Amino acid sequence: MKKLARSRSNRKIAGVLGGISNSIGIDANILRVLFIILLFPTGVFPLLITYGLLLFVLPNEEDVIT
């Protein structure tokens, strides 16, 4: 398993979901669709807050020492 970091190449907004997909080995588009689907039943704010926190907590992938 790779280290968790924001992706620089596989990004639509900030690379958070692309980085998670690289780390766990799943297609990023599947995570993006799940994220969109889960936004509405959770009331939007919990997932957006989590995404925002990950945006500031996760380093860029070129900053991660392997």
Automatic annotation (TrEMBL):
How is this protein situated with respect to the membrane? Answer: Single-pass membrane protein
Q: Which segments of the protein form a coiled coil according to its record?
A: none
- Keywords tagged on the record: Cell membrane, Membrane, Transmembrane, Transmembrane helix
- Chief location category: membrane
Its GO CC terms are: plasma membrane
Which ranges does the record mark as transmembrane? 35-58
Phage shock protein PspC N-terminal domain: from which residue to which, for each copy? 2-61
In which compartments does the protein localize?
Cell membrane
Stated name of the protein = PspC domain-containing protein
User: What species is this protein from?
Assistant: Falsibacillus albus
